[in-house]
Specification:
The structure holds three protein chains of three kinds. Chain A is mostly helical. In chain A, 76% of the residues lie in helices and 2% in strands. Chain A has a two-stranded antiparallel ribbon with strand order 1-2. In chain A, strand 1 and strand 2 (139-141) form a beta hairpin. Chain B is globular, with a radius of gyration of 21 Å. The model of chain B is unreliable at 14-18 (pLDDT under 50). Chain B has two domains: 2-138 and 271-339, Response regulator (Rossmann fold), CATH 3.40.50; 142-264 and 349-381, Rossmann fold, CATH 3.40.50. Helices cover 40% and strands 22% of the residues of chain B. Chain C has a domain at 2-13 and 42-256. Chain C has 14 helices and two strands. A two-stranded antiparallel sheet of chain C has the order 1-2. Chain C is globular, with a radius of gyration of 20 Å. The interface between A and B is large, with 46 and 44 residues.
Chain lengths: 308, 384, 329
Amino acid sequence: MTFTLLLIQILNGAQYGVLLFLIAAGLTLVFGVMGFINLAHGVQYMIGAYLTFMFLSITGNFFVALLLGLITALVLGLALEVLIFRHLYDRDHLDQVLATFGIILFVNEAVKVIWGPGTLTIPTPEILSASLQLTDNLLYPVYRLSLIVVGIIVAAGLYLIVTKTRVGMLIRAGATNADMVSALGVNIRRLFTIVFGFGAMLAGFAGALAAPVFTIEPGMGDDLLIVAFVVIIIGGIGSIRGAFIAALLVGLIDTLGRTLATDAMNLIFDASAANQIGPSLASMLIYIFMAAVLFFRPQGLFPARGAV
Amino acid sequence: MKKLICALGTLLLATTARAEDLKIGLVVTLSGPPAVLGKQIEDAFKLAVDDMGGKVGGLDTELFVVDSELKPDVALTRVKGLLERDEVDFVVGTVFSNVLGAIFKPVTRSETFLISPNAGPSTLAGKNCSPYFFSTSYQNNQNFEVLGQHAQEQGIKSVFMMAPNYQAGRDAMNGFKKYYKGEITNEVFTPLGHKDFSAEIAQMSTSDAEALFTFMPGGMGVRFVKQFRDAGLADKMKFLSAFTVDEATLPAQKDAALGFFGATTWAPNLDLPQSEAFVAAFEGKYGYIPGGFAMQAYDAALLIDSAVRAVGGDLSDKDALRKALEAADFQSLRGKFSFNNNHFPVQDFYLLRVAQRDDGKYWTEIDTKVFEDYTDSFASECKM
Amino acid sequence: MRELSVAGAETLSGKQRIDRSLLIGICILAVLALTPFVTEIAGGNYVLNLVLKAMILAIAAVSLDLLIGHGGLVSFGHAAFLGLGSYVTGIALTEGITNALPVLGLVLLICGLFALITGAISLRTSGVYFIMITLAFGQMLFFSLSSLSSYGGDDGLTLWDSPVLFGQNVFLAGSGLFYSTLIILALTWFFVGRLSVSRFGRVLRAGKENPVRVGTMGFDIFHYRLIAYVIAGLLAGVAGFLTACHAEFISPSTAAWQNSGNLIIMVVLGGMGTRNGALLGAIFVVLIEESLSLITHEWKLIFGPLLVFIVLFAKGGLVSLITRPGGRA
């Protein structure tokens, strides 16, 4: 693999990682602060994309559609919290898994009924539709670069909120010991709702941002949800910094691994065997990485206790 | 609640069959993104039944549509329901090979005819061929072989190959390599449902390959075509594909797919009166352009119609029915059509090209004929 | 006295409560045993097959409940044993081994080894980490099965033979398989039930509540958990064997994480850690999914909210609906 190719793959891995971070951030906060396993996080990602699609066809402007979509996603997320999730915080994790799974089934089917089963596309916004000539043969869309930039800004913003503001302090305290925070007179219910709504909005934001590149289809969030869980486990539950670094690592390992796995297998096996084993190995890489992290450092790379 | 009790009751009641009726079970995927393909098949089959006035082969026809959910175990349960509860005379299905594999034994063992309007795995064309199985589509490898032949004929020197990492993807790679003897720069397998092709596209850009061969069905095709075009590779590499730019994906791909090539046995612009009538009727009724899946399903209905007519509506003589099916005495939408010894079609294959119609919609058009009266590579392994 | 403090409150009121749940379980099994006769009159093979499918999954669910309900170990990779069991069976049959005993022996051996190795690694973690690592192992097995091109890959493999036991086709799809499965289900249910009230089960459950305390009492909880994990893996492997016999087809999708999730739903929905929860849960899920799909193709629009409803209002699962609150069904 040439040096140019390596650089491009690192860029690609970073972009995937940033998208993963946007999804994982909300997930790790909700899990870390409220101890709530939210499998429906994936459908919140999907809803953001579908809502943006819907508003785009009404307004014709990507950014307006994005804003409207985010607000609606926030409202829907809050509605879910008030109606269903609020009653599950004290319940067993498994009850949460079951309920959120029921929501996944329902929402995936609902979007299929409303928008049809086919894959939908939305065009990249005009302002960002240019491309960079990366090499003689390769154009890199500016939109993808802007994804990386946005992701870093959001990460920085979240980090500042969580470490420097009062709400952030409450979130960190809630992640460490929710009962104590409540006993100190803080309205823990309201805190939970804020965290949940914000997490839902982040997921919807990620879905909307990804839509021009990754398209929109029912169930689009489910595979990414699993990877997001892998990310927060590796990063450490409740930690924003951990989620960011783990997301980048997972993005890089997955992208580079996919490129290198078959080549590596070619060194050991013959071509046809390598073509069989390589891709399967590539799919397993992030799980192997996670297993390794769990083996050596079971609490994750940057556990939330004390740090962020 | 009442409906639930009714449904539970339906589970228990065995339906009694009226001897004059013809019952056909349709097993396709109606869940998730692949549902677009299942819907094409369902829509086309229903159109055919309508065109025959609700009587296929002259008998009052009852159609049972069942969702396989792309899960072999679910398909098995539902097909057993079709066979035992609904007592269907024919089973038409499926879209995907793994589902077909799951229902194959129960259907053929019950001496019910199984007609596939799409899936055509090599085992069913070869050593596991069955007197009760017929295909109105193709054998899975054939469309890819067409592309390999075309690339070889055109003297294309180097090809970058990419397919998803599952059995059909492997069939695609093997099919292409059958006739293509030039240089293969890379053979890349992506995960199923892959979203971000930037890594693979980067590899393509540095490979200096003259052409790209790919098989990216459904949503993968929609994403890949867009990302490929955005990366500026459309001008650098010839895009040779199967099931990647077809009527199921073109509505989403739009301009990004213009000029790209596909390969199969039919295109909606085929210059035959029965085909043109079908396309017009389908578009008129459903509002979208039919693709190959729809054509194959319509032909399946025509096949059943011709066979049932030939035996005079007497479905009990399985041997006579089989002979009637093998005769394939119907006017196929694709023109010439007959069955090989393994009950797979002998037909022409074309290279297709994506174009935009005058009314702005996108479809595939016939570019060149690559194979005439083409048979599949597994027929010799079939003992029939 | 110490024994009782480990046991917990449920067995204090003793025989009456346990007998009731035993009775309910036996009733369910009896109804199942009568199914072939009922379906002769109405429903036919279709319903018989559906109930058979439910029973096979019930075996896997009951084995999973040993881990979830009694051990507090949520394995998100349990379907791996279903898949592994079915593949060992399928490959053995395809390679010409049709005698049921060696096939079952291979299933137990390979599933046992897989359980031992993955269990030894996974059980070093707990809580959500355990969930993720079992998921990872399940995925690895799924990808491995999908890459077996010579056995169909993810197209799956049709099985042309069926295992023969002492010359009898007891595993042939139909009433033979039905009764074989029912017997295995009954044995599994009874065995796991006895295990849960035994000392082994009490230590396991105590470890679920407070592993540290159990450790200080001198029990090596890792040891107990690993044994439970292997037992569960073996039982699910046998369920995999039955799956292959029933479908006469093996496919990697049996080992997919969605199937593991399905098993968890059955256990939780039915009522974790109860004698009949997993059994009821499996039967309920299979029957409801099929019934709803007869009403509409979009049955998940109904099933999804139904799940949420049951979680919100039937705490303790389905078994809590058929017993008095506070009873251990």
